[in-house]
Design goal:
By secondary structure, this protein is mainly alpha-helical. It is built from four helices and two strands.
């Protein structure tokens, strides 16, 4: 898991993130994460609401998406 996080950290540079298609990210969230998690009052209520999470912190996002139960 640490290798996967390191890979994505190297791949997702500020330049790559600056041109990311946010609508595709939203669609991916709705298709996968949104079944259980809410974001801005949209989505499921099984998992925690992610609205206030550190979505602008790449390390936080990678650690929580690659190994979501690590900090439970």
């Amino acid at each position: 898991k640490l290798e996967r996080v390191a890979h994505y950290r190297e791949t997702l540079t500020p330049t790559v993130l600056a041109v990311a298609d946010l609508s595709k990210g939203r669609a991916l969230f709705n298709q996968n994460c949104g079944k259980c998690h809410q974001l801005f009052s949209t989505g499921g209520r099984i998992g925690p609401d992610l609205t206030g999470s550190q979505r602008n912190n790449l390390n936080y996002l990678l650690e929580n998406t690659v190994d979501p139960s690590a900090t439970v």
